[in-house]
Write a structure and sequence with these properties.
78% of the residues lie in helices and 2% in strands. It has six helices and two strands, in the order αααααββα. A two-stranded antiparallel ribbon has the order 1-2. The chain is extended, with a radius of gyration of 29 Å.
Amino acid sequence: MNFDQPLLDLLAGAVGLLLTLLVFSYLLGDHILVRLIFYGYIGLMAGFSVVIAFNSVIYPLLFQPLIDNPVTGWVQVAVPLFLSGLLFLKLSPRLSRLGNLSLAFLVGVGLAALIGGAIQGTLVPQLSAAISPFDLERSAMAAEERLSGVVQGFLILFGTVTTLTYFHFGARPRASGSARRPEWIETLSWIGQIFIAIALGLVFAGLLKAGFVALVERIQTLVNFIITLQGGL
């Protein structure tokens, strides 16, 4: 059975309209239809993840070497298969210790990638942004631009230092028995809280803006579908 493209577009738009209205009905209270939509969405995402994992990882790294050359392919996939088999042993209480090797390997590789990404993607760019305004090559710039760059550099450097100071937890014991950080660290930490609050506020504003943009785009799509439907009728 062949369906015309306009009919398929009409059915897709009608289903999208119905699902969107059901999701919006969550504002009136939780009910079984909203839960079914959420469960379906989670199931679709899980299925999509499985398909992506199979096409991007399992097939090219496990099955493809065995298909191309079964002899050397087993040598290539032996270690991954062995570590994967050890992970399945975590399901057994008696043999779960044997799976710690694979788990330790995964955690170690993950932490190494996380630390390397944090250094190269966050720390180094932050240091470069804090140092670049004080670059001597800026002396060829106009005086006003050079002064503006230096002021911006001081603000960036001051915000970075005070923010890092906020996460300094070294406290010294006092005669009263309580532990407290030095006063100058407390002051810098309080200023760092202001910079952190500003940064979190900007992040929240960006997320809120993205949410409103998605909401407006979805409403516009529904309005266009209704207008098209009325025009077709």
